[in-house]
Amino acid sequence: MAGAERLPHTGDKPGRPAMTRLHWIVVAVLLTGLPLWAAEERVVFEDRFDGKLGEGWSWLRENPPAWKIADGTLEIRVEPGDAQSVKNALVRNAPDRRKGKTAIEVTVTFNTPPTNQYEQAGITWYRGNQPVFKLVHERVDGKLYIVPGKVPAEMKTVTLRLIVTADKYTAQFRPDAKGEFKTVAEGDLAAGADEKVSLQCYQGPPDAEHWIRFDDFRVVQLAEGAAEAEEGFKSLFDGKTLVAWVLPPTSLVVRVARASKTAK
After folding, report:
1. At CA 170, angle to CA 167 and CA 172, rounded to 5?
2. Which domain holds residue 188?
3. Per the count of CB atoms within 10 A, which of 15, 40, 191, 260 is most buried?
């Protein structure tokens, strides 16, 4: 390995590659669970709905009695309607996708268990006033799913995360707003004029009040390639063994040789 400083040890044997400082860094990272590349991100905008809406929002087909700010959250009543007629769609300009990878995140809670077919809440992507894509928590045939992907999600709270680049999207969610984001769908999202992002809910019952709670809305600029680099690095390690790695026989306090001794 050109340019890497060799650290000799008594366990060196003919035919065995010598350990270098870079080897040790890699092994240390694997054993501690720390990422080799720290993914940098920058919050472009966030709204925690503390008493009022943040700057830059506007309403599409506003119905004032059917939304409110309460307890540091935005609550919207799920009214009848579909993607073309939704009321109280809260809209803002989408991030400029030419400037890199961006994530739009929001935590969504069904205050009232949904009962209608296709009753839903989440994020919708617009061109002008035309919806073109959605990432939602939706009731379909009596069960709750994340759409797209139709991934089962029976919990009442999820965090939705839509990652966009110049021409692609990645749809993710976190059950109960905890843990790691799970990818449910990926695909093309062609660029267009006047792009917007919206928080909305629809397909509610006409004769009952169902409310959705939105909180912790964020637009985050992600580091290009950081996640991919980390995933590629993880592929070298199965989380259980270091069989493919050359380790000194005497210097390592924690010896990981079998699946029963898991390195985390």
Report:
1. 160
2. 41-222
3. 191
